What we know:
The protein is mainly alpha-helical. It is 49% helix and 3% strand.
Amino acid sequence: MTSIIEFSGPPPQYQVPSILAPEIYNQLWRLKTEAYEVAGVSQMAASGTKPAGVDAAVAMRELGDIQSDRFLKIGKTLERFVKDVNESTVECIKEAGGYKVKGVSKKSVESIDWADVNLDEDSYVMQMFPTSMLPSTPTGRLQFAQEMIQGGIIEPSEVLDILGFPDTDELSKRRNAPRHIIERNIYEMVYKGTLVTPQPYDDHALALKLVNESYSLARLDGVPEDRLQLLREYMDATEAAIEKLKPPPPPPPPMDAGMPPTGAMPTMDPNMMPPPDAGMPPDMGPPPM
């Protein structure tokens, strides 16, 4: 049952009291903010987001450097730990004997005996890097690749290999197959001592460039002379293939039909009368008696 209460003056208002005082909420937000500051992590880094407008690879790298300075000591400690683990793994492999390692890449997978790659500690250097040299986001990778192309560091045909996008893997394999074939041939000659002959349909210009670079690098690394000779023979065969594919020289231009050959006398039509000699006086008739 309802009732009506009559009143005079302003109408009554329904008051809803707060469950918690505003100071309590402010204290919670203050503690959360201080937690980020104490840990040295920004809210963007904790949530895995980037600031709006930071799309270029240069800006992303600068932002990552600023965030990483706080954890430099911890990161270095972790790198040393990973390096120590890998050095211990190498020592265990040496003691085990008969161990095989697999070299895995986008081009091939090959199993190699450890005895063939075993090196003394003074013959190699093991280094650790905190992350990939390339940005992790697709936008950053594309920007980084464009910078390298503009700087003349890489060729445009190498962009697909650098990007490494799953959607472009098949396109990258097809587009870069000529380069991968030449690199495989260089590997066979330098590391296995196998003579490889260039095929007629290879990209000979690219092969000459890559083999020439590998030849210079092999000389710096002290590769044996017999394997250097394989590279020289490959370059000679490539140059011969390039010369063979050149078009023949054009034929000499035909001589002008209106001009007689050099040293030949012009011929006259016997039916045509020769013109009167310009040095003789005209015919005046017989002389007077």
